[in-house]
């Protein structure tokens, strides 16, 4: 048996506040890519249904009694009396069906649905979803789903081994739902609109309002908060409001952003924004690894001798220190590229780099926000 204990890097940081260089100009984006019109959005739908036609991989009555109740209720609606009948529906599975209803979806429009097992079914391959009403948050039916499923994963096995690839208990039905009820939103009747930014920022909102006012030649837009730009219909504008939005959404705006470092400690992923700046800092990094190996030996008495068989423990402890035994210095006005190059020169891996970035932030040398996922 082998156990490893790793001590995270020992970090030394010396700080010196320095002036930062001018930042490069960010790429411009269209307004339609950085903001959305308030009120024009999707609505989530959900429903409960049955998938039939499975090859013995459906729910079992003992673990999923609601499946038997659903089958009996469905058969009763079709005029078949199934009360009191013991069922073994190995080819049927109870599922939850979800979908997103697009804005302005008209009656008869088809949308995709996602089907997920809620019982103990092992595989939904080859199944067919029966008619399933899809409800909105208000309890009204907005679409009805039905159709053959497409499942990306599969499972196969025997008595001693089983192999599973992907998720065989979830799948999709392309164009599997028909919209039956439309959402009410009269865009043409509005005299003012709110443009909601995907990434709220005061500077971006102000730039977007300025771009609209410059293009239209009058003050129609105003940034009310970091997330919202208020857009008024021009006085005497005779065209539909859709024409105004189609014209405005093509305008280019250079979005601003806060300096941020996003860290996922589970996977060792680090994402640094281009605005991140580090003051002059010195870093020493090293790993101390302690490896403990257990190799027990069985000791037995001699033939026809007295005594008992015992296990004699044997433990071996090895201590190794890896990493460069030197102090790395990141020079003044450190940019993102210089930071990455400096840490790579020290041979720092992603997980050690996470600890270094957190230590630099704690020391006050990083002018950025750290977000740990």
From TrEMBL:
The basal body constitutes a major portion of the flagellar organelle and consists of four rings (L,P,S, and M) mounted on a central rod. Its main location: other. Assembles around the rod to form the L-ring and probably protects the motor/basal body from shearing forces during rotation. Keywords: Bacterial flagellum, Cell projection, Cilium, Flagellum, Periplasm, Signal. One of its GO terms (biological process) is bacterial-type flagellum-dependent cell motility. It comes from Gimibacter soli. GO terms for cellular component: bacterial-type flagellum basal body, distal rod, P ring; outer membrane-bounded periplasmic space. InterPro entries: Flag_FlgI (IPR001782). Belongs to the FlgI family. This is Flagellar P-ring protein. GO terms for molecular function: structural molecule activity. It holds the Pfam family FlgI. It is found in: Bacterial flagellum basal body. PANTHER family: FLAGELLAR P-RING PERIPLASMIC PROTEIN FLGI (PTHR30381), FLAGELLAR P-RING PROTEIN (PTHR30381:SF0). Residues 1-27 form the signal peptide.
């Amino acid at each position: 048996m082998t156990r490893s204990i790793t001590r995270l890097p020992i970090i030394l940081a010396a700080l010196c506040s320095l002036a930062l260089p001018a930042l490069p100009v960010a790429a411009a984006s269209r307004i339609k890519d950085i903001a959305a019109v308030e009120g024009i959005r999707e609505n989530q739908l959900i429903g409960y249904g049955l998938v039939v036609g499975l090859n013995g991989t459906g729910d079992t009555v003992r673990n999923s009694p609601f499946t038997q109740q659903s089958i009996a209720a469905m058969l009763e609606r079709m005029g078949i009396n199934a009360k009191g009948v013991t069922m073994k529906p190995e080819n049927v599975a109870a599922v939850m069906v979800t979908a997103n209803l697009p804005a302005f979806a008209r009656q008869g429009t088809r949308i995709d649905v996602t089907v997920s097992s809620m019982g103990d079914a092992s595989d939904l391959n080859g199944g067919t979803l029966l008619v399933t009403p899809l409800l909105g948050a208000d309890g009204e039916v907005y679409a009805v789903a039905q159709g053959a499923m497409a499942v990306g994963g599969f499972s196969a096995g025997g008595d001693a081994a089983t192999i599973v690839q992907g998720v065989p208990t979830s799948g999709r039905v392309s164009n599997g739902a028909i919209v039956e009820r439309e959402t009410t939103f009269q865009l043409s009747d509005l005299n003012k609109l709110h443009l909601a930014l995907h990434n709220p920022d005061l500077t971006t909102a102000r730039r977007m309002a300025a771009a609209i006012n410059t293009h239209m030649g009058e003050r129609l837009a105003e940034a009310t908060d970091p997330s919202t730009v208020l857009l008024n219909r021009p006085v005497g504008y005779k065209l539909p409001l859709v024409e105004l939005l189609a014209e405005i959404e093509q305008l280019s705006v250079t979005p601003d952003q806060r300096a941020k470092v996003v860290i996922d400690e589970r996977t060792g992923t680090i994402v640094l924004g281009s605005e991140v700046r580090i003051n002059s800092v010195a870093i020493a990094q090293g790993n101390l690894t302690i490896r403990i190996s257990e190799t027990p030996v069985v000791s037995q008495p001699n033939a026809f001798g007295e005594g008992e068989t015992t296990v004699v423990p044997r433990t071996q402890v090895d201590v190794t220190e890896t990493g460069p035994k030197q102090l790395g210095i990141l020079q003044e006005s450190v940019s993102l590229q210089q930071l990455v190059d400096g840490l790579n020169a020290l041979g720092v891996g992603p997980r050690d780099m996470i600890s270094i970035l957190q230590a630099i932030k704690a020391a006050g040398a990083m002018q950025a926000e750290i977000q740990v996922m």
